[in-house]
Amino acid sequence: MTHPGSAQLSGRTILFAQPSSELYGSDRVLLESVEAVLHAGARAVVALPQHGPLEAALTAAGATVEICATPVLTKSGLSARGMLALLSTGARGFRAGRSLLSRVRPDAVYVNTVTIPLWIGLARLAGIPVLAHIHEAEGSAARPIALALNFPLSFATRLIANSEYSVSVLAQSFPRLARRTSVVYNGVPGPGSPRSARESLDGGLRILFVGRLSRRKGALVAVEALGALRDRGIAASLDIVGAPVPGVHDYENELGARIRELGLVDHVQLRGFRSDIWPSLENADVAVVPSLLDEPFGNTAVEALLAARPVVVSDTSGLREAAGEYLSSRSVTPGDPQALAEALAAIGREWESVRVDASLDRLRAEQKHSPAEYRGTIALLVSEIAAAPGAIRPRPTALPDAQLTTNKV
Q1: Which of 89, 93, 289, 382 is the most exposed place for a label (fewest CB within 10 A)?
Q2: Which pLDDT score is estimated for 79?
C-alpha cells in the first residue's frame, strides 16, 4: 500500500538516533521505521551508541549505520553521581553528534525514545526538523524525573507515541505536549507461516516468557507460577527467552537460585537471547508477560497473538491496551504468582475454545499491527517535516484511522 506522502521522501536523507543496539521492543520498532523511509525512497542513516545485533539488521535492510557516542538518560542517571557521568558522556556526544550531522546533512532527524534528548537539541540548533517517537510511560516516576525526561520533547517538530497510555503519562507532566502527540501503534511483523496451537496438551502446558531478564519484566513471577501449577499437580514447563543487561547478572543469578530452590531445574529452560522468537512461540502453548511496573505497550504480547498463542499479561498500563481486546488474552494482578498460575490453569481447562480464539485473534492482531500500514504512516509523517529549508511544508494529511489517532488528552 502506497501512501500519498511517501513519494516526497525520494532523494531525502533521514538520520535516526537510537539509544541501544539490541533487538528488544523499541529496537525492533526502530527497524520498522527505518524500513519505512527506505521503502519510500529515502536514504536512512542510523546513529547507534555501540555495536550490537540491531546493527546487522539495519545494514541488511539497506541503512547506513554510524557508531556515535550518545548520552542516554535513565532514572538512576538523574542522581548527583549520574549527572556527573552524564555531563562527561554528553560532552563527547555533543561533539560526535554535531560532526555526524555536518557530514550527513539530513533533511530530518528521527529520535527514537525520550532517553536521548541531546539529538533533539543538536538537530534543532542546526535548523533540522525532528520527529520524536515516545516509547516510555513511567507513570510511577517522581514528578521532577518526569519533567526532566519529557521537557526536551518541547523542542521537537512532531511527536508520536506508541500508545494512548504513553500519551496519558506525558499529560501528567506536560499537558500541552500530550495534546499535540499522535498515537501510532507499533507495526509488528508476524511469523511467515503461523501455525495454530496444538490440539492436545499432551505432556503438559508449555509456557513461554520472552523479555529482558530484569526485575521489572517479572520472569521470577513466571517461575513462581510454574511452581504453583506443579504443586497443584498440573503438568507444565517454562521456557525463558531473554538475557540481562550486559554486565548486570544479579537478577539472572537470583532467578537461577530460585529455580533450584523450587526443584524446577528439569522444568525451566533458560534459552538466552534469541533474535528470532517465532520458533519459541511455535513450540509454546501460551505466553506470559508478567511485568511488575508500568509498560508503555506490549510488543511481546502482540507477538504471541500474531503467532496464534493465548497470552496472560499483567493488568496494568500499556499491557491492557496491547492485549485487552483479544478473546484469548487474560489479565492478572502484577506480581501475583498464584493469580498467574490460576489464569494458566484456566487456559489449560478451556484449551479447546482458547485455541480457536487464539486463531481468530491472530487475524485481528495482523490488521491492527500491520507493518505495511505502520511504514506508510511513518513515511507520511516524516515526509511532512522533511521539506527543504525555507520551503512551505505540506499541511498534515489525513492518516488511516486503523494505524494512527490524534490524542485528545
Answers
A1: 89
A2: 56
**Which one of 3.30.479.10, 3.40.50.2000, 2.30.40.10, 3.40.50.300 gives the CATH number of domain 205-368?**
3.40.50.2000
Domain extent listing, the chain: 6-187+370-406, 205-368
CB-CB neighbours of 195 under 10 Å: 12
Q: Rounded to an integer, what distance in angstroms lies between the CA atom of residue 378 and that of residue 383?
A: 8
Task: List the one residue out of 210, 376, 403, 217 whose CA is nearest residue 303.
Answer: 210
Domain 6-187+370-406 falls in which CATH fold? Answer: Rossmann fold (3.40.50)
Chain-centre distance for alpha carbon 265: 30
Closest C-alpha among 264, 285, 262, 323 to residue 208: 285
What is the length of the chain?
409
For residue 269, give the 3-state DSSP assignment.
strand
DSSP string, 284-334: -SEEEE--SS--S--HHHHHHHHTT--EEEESSHHHHHHHTT-TTEEEE-T
